[in-house]
Amino acid sequence: MRRRTLLTTLAAAPLAARAAPALAQGSAATTLRYMPQADVTSIDPMSTTSYGVRNHGHMCWDTLYGPDENFVIRPQLAAGHMVEDDGLRWIFTLRPGVRFHDNEPVRARDAVASIQRWWARDTLGQTLRDRTDAITALDDRRFEIRLKQRFGPMLEALGKPSSYPCFIFPERFATVDPARPFTEVVGSGPYRWVAAERLSGARAVYQRFDGYVPNPAAPSLLGGAKMAHFERVVFNWIPDAGTAAAALQSGEIDMYEQVAPDLRGLLARHRDVVLDRVDTGGLVAHLRFNQLHAPFDDPAVRRALLHSINQSDFMTSIMGNDRRLWSDGIGAFPTASPLANDEGIAAMTSPRSVDRAREALRAAGYANTPVTVLHPTDVTNNNTMTTVLTDVLKRSGLNADSATSDWATVLQRRANQNPPGQGGWNALIVLFGGVDLANPGVHPLLRGNGRQAWFGWPTSPTLETLRDEWLAAPDLDAQKPIARRVQAALWQDAPYIPLGQYYTDAAWRRGLVGIQKGMTLPLNIRRG
């Protein structure tokens, strides 16, 4: 591969010549140089579910609650809460002494406005919004949520670490329509955004906020103290994986969030590099359809591809033949979810046939409508799998073509609801971590609420009804049969097709300590 041949020549080339200015040697003790999985394409974490932007959010803002390393929800910006009136009144109290980056106190009214901005976007937040009678600041440190109907996953919702986290913004930012991303960062978290040093497509810089008051609990992912041990953290975005690996080996970057699969062995053998699986939940790939426009507005056309999509083809294209690194036979939920099941899984595991897919498309009345596939070329795994996807769509009888661009352009275009000829799209591959897919409450692709749903905008009354049933279920035993019905509805309504689950490793220079398991974030890390 081209990446491998680059390694011998690029290892000696300075990072400054490739992606971002190399930092002075003397700054190494005070600066963490981090290679993220994707560039920070927006500074507003409510504008996209991109994990690069999500991680930027955790640098700059706090959430009220967050998961610890065991994914138990703990207080973060909140000091705690009380529940009254048989679960219909929740009273939250903020930690004392916390301030925004402009040195204004974090007040209850900021939290109220931030929750209202968040629940306009988030799938679980939308359910909380619909069940809320009123949300009110009681004083500077306390606010209440009065419910019309009990909402069991309250803390799980407010403490979501991903897609979308409920970050707490100053009120003047929280009242900005989430469809219009803000352009300035005034955070509540451990690091300031250094706008003057931003270089789009190459560099994002964060400076420690000395006025930050961390949670008093011991560090544990996002459910304890978020410690800023480095004065600066620099996100060096290096699109070529081989170049990133060479920079890590030479010591020009300190940490590589998501190692390209074919470089794992190389980095594992390097004496100054540690390779480890930080995010054990893995990633699930999905073929997402845009259901607003032909041909995928027809469920029969979407279901036709269940005959030809082969999960193992997608997984081996990025991970090779080592079955320890990926799984096929994936349904609605990832393997670690207690709701994972085999309902109707033959839709993905029976013998594959592009001929049967062609027959099903003819039966559905497909008339050679063009299919535009969004194809980011600068995100390694997404690029490779989209190439496989476009090929199988063509072989299945669809008039498919890749619309190639960088990742930032894909993120902008996937929000466009116009027809493909007017800047829209028909299909794309999306990747979500297991934490975002564990159940129907948080799973963004299982919402069927039309134009309020995640990009692709499916309408499925069946999925919406089953989601409500799951939310009302009293325990896991009651949830499991509902999850089976959800998976049966997935094969019938086909808002997306799962493409398999895979696992990635992070890598860092030996001597870094404090890496928290669960999500690869440049927080709580220090030099040992």
Protein model, in words:
The chain is α+β, with helices and mostly antiparallel strands. It is 28% helix and 19% strand. It is built from 16 helices and 21 strands. The chain has a seven-stranded mixed sheet with strand order 8-9-10-1-11-19-12. Strands 14-18-13-17-15-16 form a six-stranded mixed sheet.
Descriptive keywords:
single chain, 528 residues, alpha+beta, seven-stranded mixed sheet, six-stranded mixed sheet, 19% strand, globular, disordered N terminus
The count of strands amounts to 21
Beta percentage is: 15-25%
Shape: globular
Proportion in helices: 25-40%
Distance between the terminal alpha carbons, to the nearest Å? 36 Å
Q: Radius of gyration, rounded?
A: 23 Å
| Major sheet details | 7 strands, mixed
SS content category: alpha+beta
**Poorly predicted segments:** 1-25
Arithmetic mean of pLDDT: 93
Number of helices: 16
Spatial order of strands in the largest sheet: 8-9-10-1-11-19-12
Please outline what is shown here.
By secondary structure, the chain is of the alpha+beta class.
Write the layout of secondary structure elements.
Layout (H helix, E strand, L loop, with lengths): L1 H9 L20 E5 L15 H10 L4 E3 L5 E3 L2 E7 L4 E6 L13 H12 L3 H9 E6 L4 E6 L6 H5 L12 H4 L16 E3 L9 E6 L23 E5 L4 H10 L4 E2 L7 H5 L4 E4 L6 E7 L9 H6 L6 H9 L6 E2 L18 H4 L4 H10 L6 E7 L3 H16 L3 E7 L1 H7 L13 E7 L27 H12 L3 H18 L2 E7 L3 E4 L2 E2 L12 E2 L1
Parallel strand pairs: 1-10, 1-11, 15-16, 15-17
Antiparallel strand pairs: 2-3, 4-5, 5-7, 6-7, 8-9, 9-10, 11-19, 12-19, 13-17, 13-18, 14-18, 20-21
Helix pairs in contact: 1-7, 3-4, 10-13, 15-16
